[in-house]
Amino acid sequence: MKYIFIADFFKEDVLGGGEIVNDVVISALDKLGHDILTVYSRDVNLSFLDAHTGSNFIIGNFLGLTDSAKRRLGKEKYVIYEHDHKYLKTRDPSPFEDFKAPKEQIINRNFYTNALSIVCQSALHTEVLQKNLGLRNIINSGGNPWTEEELDEIERLSLAEKEPVCAVMNSKNHIKNTQGAVDYCAVNGLKYRLISSPSPVEFLKQMSVCENFVFFPMVLETYSRVVVEARMLGCKITTNNLVGATSESWFELQGAELIAHLREQRKKVVKIFVDVFQRPSVYEDITVILNAYRRPANLEKQVQAIRAQTCPPKQIWVWVNDHEDLQGYDFSKLDVDRVIRNDYNWKFYGRFAAALLAETKYVAIFDDDTIPGVRWFENCLDTMRASPGILGSAGVILDAETYNPHTRCGWPTQNVETTEVDLVGHAWYFEREWLKYLWSEPPTTWDNGEDMQFSYLAQKHGAVKTYCPPHPPDERALHGSIYGNELGMDAKATSTNTAVSHGTFFSERDYCVKKARSAGWSLVRERTK
Question: Domains plus CATH for the chain?
């Protein structure tokens, strides 16, 4: 595959964070055998674009691009690798309330809108860009890449014995706010050391012997490599709310654990640029698993809604739990690819076991009372690019140390924005690879709680968050469930089943919450205080 990487500067010109990151991606694509050409943005004119039409363009910093070149790129496939905030005149959203700039500050909107995707540096960066542009073509890369050699050196330096002193970056760039860090140390009676060096390795060596890194940037840092490097070195971090990396769930890691995570993260970041240009094939990379138990009458409607998706799946499977309500039902009339019959009721976990057999990147699982809108998979794919995690049509945010009380989102309340939640249900959408987390520990009970078990263990073992995609009231085609109240509130619902009392069902769920909490499950309400 041919790539053309456009940027204002490259690593050999400027040793800035954006240039370093670009260089890692360029080198990684080259090592994968891709044909990659680098070109300065100032040299990209209409003749150049005409000569390279049909290529895959990756746009780094683009201040040197002319308006005519931006318009011409609209006819090509391009991805913006966003390092700061070039959608704003000021290139800094931090002075504005909740990081949302007034409309008159927005620039380059069409250039961002026409991109296949905008690849952001962190969850915070992604959230702020979405807030200002309202676009759906945004991907959170989840972090910057480092080379193997750089990570090896950082790992070696992380073994250095720490001194009870704070490291303060001695930068001439006023937005790095060296004086603010110095003042903080002085006011709090902390011993500090100014560190600086033109050599990245020497700078890290100076930092590695310090117990703490104090850093108060004056503008919103989309990621902040230096903060993550300090964390890899095993330093404590004292900073403000302007560091994007702190918004990532993996930021709780440090030292060797964080280094190991970032070794894998580099592969994922590079894969984003390969996958995004193959977007049509991704749409078909979904296996759907429906659950047959007591509501077989809903199956045909479910299959019709899934076949009608704007992003159709590769296959539809039906997992059949044994029940007398299914006797005589003709599964052969369904337009599905697999019917997996059981002479036993595997309850909630069975379908997730079947999902291990899927060969697609994504798996979508539906309860038997859940019929999606025709744009549900489109909604999930768009959400996954910006907020990768376990997605669902009914989200739950736990308000206490028990299942009830809780706050719901998704089809029950119709949230307009993507919302981080503690668990999801009714309809799941996730990467098949994440199923390994569900099976990493035995369930608290096989009779209940698979929804919270999946989110809890994915968070604990894989730093995978859980989200409820947008369910706007005026666009039901995007909803994961369009007949939730009509189909889900009958006598066959597990939560109101006469065989299991309502009280017993929720007592079991309370117990599942308590067990997960005691084993390290972090809740949204704790992280958003």
Answer: 2-140 (3.40.50), 148-260 (3.40.50), 281-527 (3.90.550.10)
